[in-house]
Structures
1.
Amino acid sequence: MKKRNIWSGLLFGIGVMGFFDELVFHQLLQWHHFYDWSTTEVGIFADGLFNAFAWFATIGGLFLLADLKRQRIFQRTRWWGAVSLGAGLFQLFDGIVLHKILRVHQIRYVDNLIVYDLVWNISSIILIIIGVVLLRKATKQEVKEG
Amino acid sequence: MEGHIHHSSSVFDVGGVLSQVLLAFPFVVAFVIYIYAYQISKEKGRDWPVYRLVLFVVGISFALVSVIGPLAVRVHMDFTYHMLGHLLLGMLAPLLIVLSAPMTLVLRALSVENAKRLTRILRSKVVGFFTDPIVASILNIGGLWVLYRTELYMAMHESLLLHLLIHMHVFLAGYLFTISLIYIDPVPHRRTYIYRTIVFIFALAGHGILSKQLYAHPPAGVPTSEAQNGGMLMYYGGDVIDAIIIVILFYQWYQLRAPRPSLVAN
């Protein structure tokens, strides 16, 4: 029960961050490029795999949520904690591995890119911290009630 | 038109009248069979949902639009249109036709004896092999890699036979891919949800990666701007249609897990 709430939230968090990235940075702001000429071959491969995974994570995470609700074992705090953790982990992975190491694309094609990179990665760490705090809170609540 | 070597419109040209008619023919036959089976099934007193009929007609229409008429002609001149045709023929039409459950309808229309024969074929090892998600994905996505990353794409525009074979392959591989992932018609060789999901992630990734490759490195003879538009259309269009398949796949999982208070009441 605990595990299933965490899995559902984690997957949904990862997927939703993938979509947020596509919607806001690719489509609305158009900071990211569809194709960056300095991308490594591994980068193209990793990016493709993660985009595909994000679709499954979002849709799968939501169906898992529906299943939790149906069985009346949905745990709000734990689920949202896992969402925040998943979103933060994906954003950090995106910011460090995909952007910097594999050079899939940069956040924005400007001179002071380092500022964007810092804001990006720090905000992802904040999401991870919020996620961990919520997950611990959920466990504490359980101990009290238990 | 006169004196123009490549586009002198002969009946035997690739993309000309003959190739359009030949490519449209199987879909017309399928349409007739489906409607006929629908009639017989009705005469036998069994209802067939109207939405399935609608899905089938729309699916066949998308397939036809991509092989005959104005789109089929433009497909040979502009890579963006080529990709639109590919999305319709290889992804959307197969999905809609799969959802119309043609095999179920045909099995209903057949006599008991013939239905048994058909079921025996469906249970055969060969069918089991081709409906394995990995095999279907290799035929579908692997086929596209071969088409766009080798000389085949150029050759397709020169040879009528190649043109016909490749177009039928695109539809059939798309159909096989869809039935290997979502189970609408009877499926004797079932694979687990987790297996189908993992294979599907890689197949979708392969499709996305290929579309970015096309954007960056156009196939021979394709102008850069067309390759970029076509690549992006393939990427986002593919994502949308695959997302529908993912929703259906997980919805079927969700239904399977439904707590059933009484199995008898059904």
Note: Helices of chain A lie at 2-28, 41-70, 76-101, 113-145.
2.
Amino acid sequence: MYSIIVVPPPTTEDERDRSQIRLAPGERLTFGRSAPDNGLHIAHDGVSRRAGEITAQGAFWVLSNFSRAQTYVVENPEGAGEHVKVAPGRLDAPIPFEFSRIVLPAAGDLLPLQVWAPRHDYLSGSGGLDGATTAPAFSVDRTKRYFAVLAALCEPRLRGTPHAPLPTVDQVADRLRPTWPAASRTSVQWNIDYLAVKLRLKPGPESADTGPRLNGKKESLVSLALRFDLVREDDLGVLAGPPGRVTP
Amino acid sequence: MTEPYAVAVPKGYRVGVWEVREPLATGAFGSVYAARRTGESTELPRTAALKFLPTGTATPRRLTHLRELIEREIELYRRLKHPRLVRMYETLTVDDPDRPELDGATVLVLERAKGSLSALLAATPRPEAGPALLAQICEGLAQLHGAGWVHGDLKPANVLLMDDGSVRLADFNMAAELEGTHAYTPAFSTPDYTPPELLWTEIGERGRRIRPSADVWAFGVLAHLVLTDSFPLPGATPAARRDAAATYARGTDELRLSPELPDDWRRIISACLTRTHQDRVSGETLLRRVEAAAGAGHRAFRLPRLRPARHLRRTSLAAITTAAATALAALAYGISVWADGARGSGGSGSGASANVSAAAYGASELRTDRGIPPAYRLLIVETAHDCDQKDVTPVLIAAMLKVESDFDPDLADPANDEYGIARWTPRVLRWWMNEDGTPGETVPQPPFPPAESIPAMGRYLCWIAPRLHEDLPGDRRVLIATAYRRSYRTVNAAGGVPPDVRAYADRIAHYLKEYTPPDRNPP
């Protein structure tokens, strides 16, 4: 029932093992240098003992800045520079982004702390907002990169045969590069992982496994997306340029 | 109703024998229009509700899930026929190449309702009939769950109110058949009625897992809304209420129900709105408690067990309404708001013609010229049809009523403690009085009008039939009748008709022959 996911900054040793912290509405997570006082311990001398607090509020979250002097900046990585500044001492500042990066200034380093709000709702088709309308369980933002990645994954099956092979991560990155020059294997993979969270994909039996399971994750995403019409033929417009480079 | 209709159908448009009239509602997946029948038909009613679902070829590959939802709904309608579930008469496909937006649309022809619970609540918050309506909604749920299905989207807009004041559940797009303890439903839901465990739940490729307890939660929300005109969880918006549900389920907040709720309903709603699905009350227990709470004036019996949709297939609407009204006249029970309408439409004006139809009701299965009172034919025939045992037939029930009481609804035999047209002994009737098979809360008191006695008799016979040993000699129907008198164990132990009821058995056999239409008698 969580609505907010906090991804701690990478540490040198366990780059791969970045455990996510899930918060349900109303739950709080404090972060800072002091281990006993904080839910999230950030071992960096440049960070305050009690640096701040993240509180999940329904589908969004609020940030409190406990430091005396430092302003925190919360960026929207896909927002072309869009950001929110949270001044020192400011409590419960609402953050409107679906993905955010809190940048903690720490003695010359900038530590990125990612916060995802995958439960953001978007208007779907004809449905109203009155709570009495039967609504799909998925709510996707068609302007986000994850949607472009999903569309690229679904493209061969939407255009071709229902059993067309799925594009590889590299092929997806190539397909998206005209509209997203920075697309890379890593960024595409990040979006696939995020989609699995966003669409609440049931983890497979061997979910702890990473590498080779990726194919299963893509397969599940595509079948879910096509089954519930999250991506339709007319959505393929987000993939500017002609198809063809995807076909193996 | 300002939103555009998902499927726009012009007034006067013809589909099959139906002529489209005014729009009734539009949902997330299709649009519903009133319709009237244009041709002659003995099977279809005069009016119906047509649900148009946009499955046309103009929208290739876009509506995978919609097709699946429709198949689900049709499947349920085909397989489940219960008095608290809306009936489907037929399905049609629009064949009209000149109108590409309609061509290929699937049309479900459904029972026409008077309105929905959401419309009633909008017009009359906290309706006086609330508890009685809830009891019937709960019955509908129990029937669905009993048949192994989960509704998945119970809310006021999906509860329909019929002309006779009874309630039917509708809209089975989300319904799913149970596989073990849970079912898979498409990942759609209505936020205010979604239990906390399904908020942001994990979703597999088959959809989300749902249990009958999800309907129980939705019923709790709905009951609170009907009785207090407010949602049980606080918040001005659905999003706020959803968060309140999540917070409550995590145990950080308590459930604070409206102080307006009477104690018994407070307990019922609390039992529905538990934090986890494991703690939630089961559908059966819920029904018992809801019926007890709906209590006063509700007595043991609810609205009569008539099955309009099935009747409609066989006779005209007017005949049914009148026949129903006649059969029910003895029941001094009605939901105040709606009963008047029902009586009005079944008024005496159409009496003559209706009696003719009632007298011929079920003529193919039950002779019309052997003195079976027309007023009971409908009850007898429909009661027999409610039972899936082949030996429990209209003829058997009629023969038994003849022998038991000579069709005397007022029979009272205090010496033997037997009353009414079916000679029920009160302490035995208690076990058969409720349609869902639950015993009555207390031993019922006579009089037992035919609308109660006959269906209860049918339920008992239907229970007896499979319990009699296969190898007993003689006519199964006679054996069933003697088991009604002496219990199935006695008949099994006696290896046939027990000696002390031989005379009774002979009379039953006589009337079985008497009432069977000529072409139906075994060679």
Note: The CA atoms of residues 67 and 168 of chain A lie 45 Å apart.
